[in-house]
Amino acid sequence: MSNIFISLIPLLMISMLAPCRANALSEVTAIPTQNSPAANVDSDPGELELFLEAKISLRRAIKIAEKLHSGSRTAEITFDSSSGSPVYRVRTTRKAQIWENAVDAKTGDITGSETVSSLESLDTDERNNFVALKRVRQELSDAVLIAEKAADGKAISGRLADEDGKLNFVIFVVSGDHLKEVLLEPAKVRRP
Question: Per residue, what are the HEC states of 99-135?
Answer without folding.
Answer: EEEEEECCCCCEEEEEEEEEHHHCCHHHHHHHHHHCC
